[in-house]
Design brief:
2 domains; seven-stranded mixed beta sheet; alpha/beta; about 400 residues; 16 helices; Aspartate Aminotransferase, domain 2; Aspartate Aminotransferase, domain 1
C-alpha cells in the first residue's frame, strides 16, 4: 500500500474510532488528512495562543503543574463559578468514571443514541443501563414527559441526559431541562452533560449549572477540550452542590491535571472575546454546512446545536463503506455511528469545519453516493476565499437536480 494511503482495516480494530495520530502513523506519506470525526473547535485557540504555548513548551514540560484546586480556582474566577462547587478532571471521561464509581448505584437511565461512555461505563461496573430510545421519525427529539415515565417504569435511580445530545446535536431548551430536574428530584442523581452546550445559539443562557449548585442530586458536566479545541490537553469539570462536589473531589489525585491544562486555563482570562468569536464563526459554518449537506439527493440532515451534524445516508448506502472510501480516496476522516447503541451505520456524525474542508467532504460524498465520474463540487459550495455574506445566497435555493447536473 502506498505511504499516502490509509489501510481501512485500522478503522475496524475497536469499538471507537482510531485517534488522529494513529491514522497519521498508518500513512506517514499523507499530510492533508481532514478530520470530520473528532468534534473540535477549529477557530480556537487562536494562532497567538498557540505561539505562546510553543514559546513556553520547555517550562510546561519541565516543571510540575499546580495542584487541581489551584487550577480550578483560576477557572472559577474566569467562568464565574464558586470553587466549592467545581471539580476539574483529566477529561470529562475521568469524571464520568468517578461519578459511576461513587454515585451510581444499581441502575442508570439515559436516552440512546448518546455519548458511549454513559452506557459503557456503568455496564463495565455491573450496573443496569435503562436505554430510552430516541426515534428517527421524530428527529431524535427528546420528550421530557416520556423520559420521566420511562424512568419511573424502570425504577432507575440515576438519569443522564446530554444536552446537546451526541451524535445528533438535538437540543432541549433550558426550561425543559429544569422541569426534568424538578420531576426527578427524588432520584439518587441526575446528570446533565453539557459538553457541547457552548455551541448552542438557540437561546442566550442555556446552561443549568446554576441549578446544579443548589439542588441535592444534580451534576452538570462540562468538557473544556471540546469547547476550546484542545482535546489533547484532557481537561473538563463538573458543577454540583458542595457536598456532591466534595465527594468526587476527594477521590481524585491531587495532581490529576497537567501543565498544559494549567497554562491554558490561565490564558483564558485574556482571550474571552476571541473564544466568543470562535463560537459565532462555528454557528455560521454549521448553518451553511447543514444547508449544503441537505442539498445532496437522498441525504437526511438532522437539526443540530452542537459542533457537528448528523446525517442519514440514502437507502442502500452504508456508512462503513463510505467512511473507508472517504479516508482512502479523499483524505477525509468521518464518524459512522454503527457502533453507537440506538443507531446504525447508515448514520454519520460530521464535525462542523470551515468551507475549504467541507468542499472536500461534499466531493467525496458525491463520488460515493452517486457514482460520479468527475468529482465536481455542487454549485452551492462556497469557493476558497469567499467570505460569508458576500454575493448571493445560492445555498438556500440549490435544488437536488442542480447537484445531479454538477456530478
Amino acid at each position: 500500500m502506498p505511504s499516502d494511503q490509509i489501510d481501512p482495516s485500522l478503522l475496524r480494530q475497536s469499538a471507537h474510532s482510531p485517534s488522529f495520530f494513529a491514522l497519521q502513523r498508518a500513512s506517514p506519506g499523507r499530510h492533508d488528512l481532514v478530520d470530520f470525526c473528532i468534534p473540535c473547535n477549529p477557530y480556537f485557540p487562536t494562532p497567538g495562543m498557540f505561539s505562546r504555548l510553543a514559546g513556553s513548551l520547555e517550562q510546561i514540560l519541565k516543571y510540575y503543574p499546580s495542584d487541581a484546586d489551584a487550577i480550578a480556582a483560576e477557572l472559577c474566577a474566569v467562568l464565574g463559578h464558586h470553587p466549592q462547587t467545581v471539580v476539574m478532571g483529566n477529561g470529562s471521561t475521568e469524571l464520568i468514571t468517578w461519578i459511576d464509581h461513587l454515585l451510581v448505584r444499581e441502575s442508570l437511565a439515559t436516552p440512546i443514541p448518546t455519548f458511549g461512555r454513559w452506557t459503557d461505563q456503568p455496564m463495565e461496573t455491573g450496573k443496569r443501563v435503562d436505554m430510552f430510545q430516541l426515534h428517527e421519525l421524530l428527529g431524535f427529539e427528546f420528550d421530557v414527559d416520556a423520559f420521566v415515565r420511562f424512568v419511573r417504569a424502570r425504577g432507575s435511580r440515576t438519569a443522564v441526559v446530554c444536552n446537546p445530545n451526541n451524535p445528533d446535536g438535538g437540543y432541549v431548551p433550558r426550561r425543559e431541562i429544569v422541569r426534568l430536574l424538578d420531576c426527578l428530584i427524588d432520584l439518587d442523581l441526575v446528570v446533565v452533560d453539557e459538553s457541547f452546550l457552548d455551541f448552542v445559539d438557540a437561546e442566550a443562557h442555556p446552561s443549568v449549572a446554576d441549578e446544579a449548585r443548589i439542588r441535592p442530586n444534580v451534576i452538570v458536566l462540562k468538557s473544556l477540550g471540546k469547547n476550546f479545541g484542545l482535546h489533547g490537553v484532557r481537561f473538563g469539570y463538573l458543577v454540583a452542590n458542595p457536598a456532591l462536589a466534595r465527594t468526587v473531589r476527594g477521590a481524585l489525585p491531587k495532581w490529576n491535571l497537567n501543565s498544559f491544562a494549567e497554562f491554558v486555563v490561565f490564558l483564558l482570562r485574556e482571550h474571552g472575546a476571541e473564544y466568543r468569536e470562535s463560537l459565532r464563526l462555528l454557528a455560521r459554518d454549521r448553518l451553511l454546512m447543514a444547508q449544503q449537506l441537505a442539498s445532496l439527493p437522498g441525504l437526511k440532515v438532522f437539526p443540530s446545536q452542537g459542533n457537528f451534524v448528523m446525517v442519514k445516508l440514502p437507502d442502500g448506502k452504508d456508512g462503513v463503506g463510505l467512511r473507508d472510501h472517504l479516508v482512502a480516496h479523499h483524505g477525509v476522516f468521518v464518524r459512522e455511528c454503527g457502533n453507537k447503541l440506538g443507531s446504525t451505520s447508515q448514520f454519520l456524525r460530521l464535525v462542523v469545519r470551515p468551507q475549504e474542508d467541507v468542499q472536500r467532504l461534499l466531493i467525496g460524498l458525491g463520488s460515493y453516493l452517486y457514482g460520479s465520474a468527475s468529482e465536481v463540487p455542487p454549485d452551492n459550495v462556497v469557493a476558497p476565499g469567499h467570505r460569508w455574506g458576500e454575493g448571493e445566497p445560492q445555498h438556500a435555493e440549490t435544488r437536488p437536480e442542480d447537484f445531479r447536473a454538477a456530478i
